Amino acid sequence: MKISRNNHIIFFSILNIILFVILFYGGSRHDYSLYSITWQGILNQDLNIYYHSYGPLHLFFAFIYKLNPLLPKIIYGVLFSIFQIFLFLKLLKLGDKILLLFYISIPCNFLIIATVYFYGINDAIVAFFLFFSLIFKLNKRDVVSGIFLSVSILTKIYPILLVPFFILERKKINFKLLLSLIISLIFILTVSIYFFGNKLILDPFMFGAARDPKLLSIFASLNYDFPESLIVKNLIENNSFIVLISTLITIIFCLIKQTKIIISLILTYLTILITYKVGHIQFYLPLCAFFSFLLIYEKNYLNIFYLVLPLIILLSLTQLIYSTTGGFDLMNQSEYNFELIREKIGYIYFVINIFLFYRIIRSLDKNSSY
Question: Could you say which of 2, 74, 213, 305 has the lowest number of CB atoms within 10 Å?
Fold first, then answer.
């Protein structure tokens, strides 16, 4: 039975109202409570600013936080809902099947519900600006695309690894977008240094390199199983080089194959997630945004979307179980052996991401339009 356009609009509107109820109910917790400590330290002009591991734009939210402690979280939610509305309106004319896939991958995805609305994690900002930077680029609005890309980079550093696909077009450099990006980066960095100083801007680079392996990374699972292994320790200590080299190889591969930008972004982002030691589940938010982009061009990319759909569902289930078990029972209060999940889940995601990477590459050989 076909569902009417108006019923879809009502359903989607109700979903977003529920998401904002969840946002306010969630309050300040998880990473957002650590953001609050950072922002309060900036407002107090403390000598030592704690828990700062992000780009300089994250620091400016201190002034918004001063107006209301939940206002930055509300902004994250509003921006992500704008992204949802944009997608929904694009997909509304494509029929019930595509909209069902959209509901599963975005508004009904527990990864989105928890990390964006319940916890208020700033990867929502990265996903928003990366997604619309891509949209503006495809619509030939290069200046705006460069500005949006700079915002994503200076919120969290890792989007800088995706820059080649934005500035290179058919083996030529898009100088308009590149210039926009460079000017935006220089301007924002200059203003940031003026307000916060050099040290606070550079701290995240040192912090990122020194972090321990986290949940969804294979390095976390290896560290559990082989805590005394010198090989594992060296892999963890030199993780930055592993990520950079692996990402560079993927970029070169995509440029040689001349893959479409969305496929290149997905493959490169998967490479980062496969190789990066800090395997936080919220890092998958921008990837889910890229996945949802595939639905807009469903005639070309629906087969690719079906390849990534199991990962989307796994992320949703992982986040649901994680949130309802106190981080897979970190306090070890449950009768169930959740510790086994914590220790082995990095292997699961590694295998699934590698397999997905392989399947997408295989699909490139079968369909030259990708």
Answer: 2
Q: Name the CA dihedral angle for 207, 210, 213, 219, rounded to a multiple of 10 degrees.
A: 140
Query: Which structure tokens are listed for 12?
Result: 């989607």
- 360 with 307: CB under 8 angstroms? yes
Q: What is the per-residue pLDDT across 19-73, written as a single tens digit (0 to 9) for each?
A: 999 999 999 988 999 999 999 999 998 888 887 889 999 999 999 999 999 999 9
Between CA 136 and CA 144 the distance in angstroms is 7
Q: Following DSSP, what letter does each residue of 226-277 receive, concatenated? A: -TT-HHHHHHHHTHHHHHHHHHHHHHHHHHHHT--HHHHHHHHHHHHHHH-S
CB atoms within 10 A of CB 105: 25
Q: Tell me if 77 sits within 8 A of 112, measured CB to CB.
A: no
For residues 363 and 367, give the distance between their C-alpha atoms in angstroms, rounded to a whole number. 6
pTM score of the predicted model:
0.93
User: Using CA atoms, how far apart are residues 180 and 148, in angstroms rounded to an integer?
Assistant: 10
